[in-house]
Structure formats: structure tokens, C-alpha cells
Design brief:
mainly alpha; about 85% helix; about 0% strand; globular
Length: about 110
């Protein structure tokens, strides 16, 4: 029941802000569910897919979706995902944590500066 509730919260945040799946779910998986860093990231990606598809359907119904831009970014995302997935096997958990923390700081700083 706890995992379903967390999924609802993450889905809500993802639907409202188009963010949160990886930013929130990875730390939850690693700390609350005691998953390995790599397992947490893989599980999070699996969880994000249905959230993204269902939210995109609703966004499309409200005419908020730019298909041209979305398809081009999706193609780039597939290529980047393949590269990132292969690199995940070569990077230690400690470095993954450091990179993730740096990314979060950068994302937070960028939002504040806007």
C-alpha cells in the first residue's frame, strides 16, 4: 500500500510539473526501499514510462503537446538513454550519487535564477 501511495504522489507531481519521476523517485527507492543506486535508477525509469504516457495523453487532449518538438526530443532521448544505460554499468555508485547531487544543485539554481 505504501508503494502505491508513493506512486500516486509521484504521478501527481509528474503530471503537474512534468518533473519528479526521477528527481524524487530515485532517492525514495535508494533510501526508503534500500535499493542499490543502479537498481533504483532502472526501476524508476520503468515506473516513469506509464506516468509519462498517461500524462501526455491528457496534455494532448488539452492541446498542450507540440508533436514536432516532442518527436525530435524523443529521438534524442532514445539515443541518450542508450548511451546513459551503457555508461551506468561502468560508473560506481558513489560517482552516480555525486553526479546526481550536482545535477540537482544545477537544476535548483537554474530555477531560482529564472
Amino acid at each position: 500500500m505504501k508503494k502505491l501511495f508513493i506512486g500516486i504522489i509521484i504521478g501527481f507531481i509528474s503530471g503537474m510539473f512534468s518533473a519528479g519521476g526521477g528527481l524524487i523517485l530515485v532517492p525514495i527507492c535508494t533510501y526508503a526501499f534500500k535499493m542499490d543506486e543502479k537498481e533504483a535508477r532502472a526501476t524508476t525509469l520503468f515506473c516513469i514510462l506509464p506516468m509519462v504516457v498517461s500524462t501526455a495523453i491528457i496534455y494532448n487532449k488539452n492541446n498542450f503537446l507540440d508533436w514536432n518538438l516532442g518527436i525530435k526530443c524523443a529521438i534524442g532521448g532514445i539515443v541518450g538513454g542508450i548511451i546513459g544505460g551503457k555508461l551506468l554499468n561502468k560508473i560506481s555508485n558513489k560517482w552516480l550519487q555525486i553526479f546526481f547531487i550536482l545535477f540537482l544543485f544545477y537544476a535548483g539554481f537554474s530555477l531560482i535564477m529564472r
